[in-house]
Amino acid sequence: MDDGREVIIEFDDLEYMNHACIELIDDWQKQYLGTGGRVQIDWDTLISKYHDKFNRRALPA
Question: How does DSSP assign 15-56, residue by residue?
Protein backbone atom coordinates (compact mmCIF):
# COMPACT_ATOMS: atom_id res chain seq x y z
CA MET A 1 0.00 0.00 0.00
CA ASP A 2 1.35 3.40 -0.96
CA ASP A 3 2.06 5.93 1.78
CA GLY A 4 -0.37 8.80 2.05
CA ARG A 5 -3.48 6.99 0.89
CA GLU A 6 -6.75 6.87 2.78
CA VAL A 7 -7.67 3.44 4.11
CA ILE A 8 -11.16 2.53 5.28
CA ILE A 9 -11.48 -0.64 7.34
CA GLU A 10 -14.99 -2.07 7.58
CA PHE A 11 -16.18 -4.75 9.96
CA ASP A 12 -19.73 -5.35 8.73
CA ASP A 13 -19.27 -9.07 8.05
CA LEU A 14 -16.89 -9.70 10.92
CA GLU A 15 -18.19 -12.20 13.46
CA TYR A 16 -15.26 -12.49 15.84
CA MET A 17 -12.47 -10.26 17.09
CA ASN A 18 -9.89 -10.95 19.76
CA HIS A 19 -7.76 -8.60 21.82
CA ALA A 20 -4.55 -9.37 19.89
CA CYS A 21 -6.19 -8.36 16.59
CA ILE A 22 -7.46 -5.12 18.10
CA GLU A 23 -3.94 -4.30 19.27
CA LEU A 24 -2.52 -5.19 15.84
CA ILE A 25 -4.98 -2.89 14.06
CA ASP A 26 -4.29 -0.10 16.56
CA ASP A 27 -0.51 -0.43 16.13
CA TRP A 28 -0.84 -0.54 12.34
CA GLN A 29 -3.06 2.56 12.36
CA LYS A 30 -0.50 4.52 14.39
CA GLN A 31 2.29 3.44 12.06
CA TYR A 32 0.32 4.26 8.91
CA LEU A 33 -0.74 7.67 10.23
CA GLY A 34 2.96 8.34 10.82
CA THR A 35 3.58 7.94 7.09
CA GLY A 36 1.04 10.63 6.28
CA GLY A 37 -1.75 8.20 5.49
CA ARG A 38 -5.33 8.51 6.65
CA VAL A 39 -7.27 5.69 8.29
CA GLN A 40 -10.97 5.35 9.01
CA ILE A 41 -11.82 2.68 11.55
CA ASP A 42 -15.18 2.33 13.25
CA TRP A 43 -13.72 1.47 16.66
CA ASP A 44 -17.16 1.20 18.28
CA THR A 45 -18.18 -1.57 15.87
CA LEU A 46 -14.85 -3.32 16.25
CA ILE A 47 -14.95 -3.27 20.04
CA SER A 48 -18.57 -4.45 20.03
CA LYS A 49 -17.49 -7.52 18.01
CA TYR A 50 -14.97 -8.27 20.74
CA HIS A 51 -17.53 -7.85 23.54
CA ASP A 52 -20.24 -9.78 21.66
CA LYS A 53 -17.98 -12.81 21.76
CA PHE A 54 -18.11 -12.82 25.54
CA ASN A 55 -21.83 -12.05 25.67
CA ARG A 56 -22.60 -15.04 23.44
CA ARG A 57 -20.71 -17.35 25.80
CA ALA A 58 -22.77 -16.14 28.74
CA LEU A 59 -26.10 -16.85 27.03
CA PRO A 60 -27.74 -20.21 27.72
CA ALA A 61 -27.69 -22.60 24.79
Answer: ----HHHHHHHHHHHHHHHHTT-EEEE-HHHHHHHHHHHHHH
